[in-house]
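#struct-help
A.M.: can someone run this one for me? Single chain, 114 residues.
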Amino acid sequence: MPRPRIPTNVLRIKGAAKVNPARIKARENEPKPDKPLGNPPKHLSSDQRKCWRELVKVVQDGVFADCDAWAVELACVLMAEFRADTGAFNAAKIARLDSLLGRFGITCISSDLI
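D.P.: on it. Structure tokens below:
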């Protein structure tokens, strides 16, 4: 499976626009989200909502938009489950959580997040 494309806003934050301006120029006409992520959904548990707020603080401003809500929700559900019972959290779930965090520009699971 090919590596997922890094979102343009994440590339800008990481400084890729300075290193390879043509890479950003090629993406000029891509759709741009215009709404912020917003608050955690009411159906999430209190622990999951806490993870949502924590994740929003950890990720650089400008990374999340409303179109990221489902991915953020999944990451928060997984993180809350991990924290509730680390021993029952299997390798597939760890890999999925790590993948989601990587898409958000978090290159590793930091000790602050776990």
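A.M.: thanks! Helices lie at 8-14, 16-19, 21-25, 46-58, 69-84, 91-103.
D.P.: also worth noting: Residues 69-84 form the longest helix (16 residues).
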